Known about the structure:
The chain is built from five helices and eight strands. Strands 1, 2, 3, 4, 5, 6, 7 and 8 form an eight-stranded mixed β-sheet that branches. It is α+β, with helices and mostly antiparallel strands. Residues 1-153 form the N-acetyltransferase domain.
Amino acid sequence: MIVRELEKQERKYALDIIWSVFCMDVAEVYEQEGIDTFREYLKQENIDQLCDSGELLMFGVFEQGELEGTISLQRRGHICNYYVRRSCQGKGAGRLLFDYAKRYCKEELHKTIMTVDAAPEAVKKYIHMGMKPIDEMQMIHGKCYVPMATEIL
């Protein structure tokens, strides 16, 4: 498996993975407002604008040329859109993405902390990767999440 920054034409496939896994694993704890807001955010033209401006960095993990998962970083060191195809979960793809993002935050963005707003069902996975909750569960604009962070050494 390899991890690299996604090319513009690959973003669509990443967005398909994000939406599919979100609907199966995350949407049930969101209110309709949160689902609608997330869907609007994931529109191709919005993501392209964020990536083309440098505000958002999208990476993918590939196995035999197939995109298995994706992680996005905001320049402030905040993870967003971290999703792995269900059929590829538990095989190391997610760990590779996480480690790559952490290394990128340190080496390219010069950050000492990486953060995420974790969906409730993902909190244990993030703890397993070294992140810690920094606040209680939040429900803001229909989005349910736990703010988490990890130091980058």
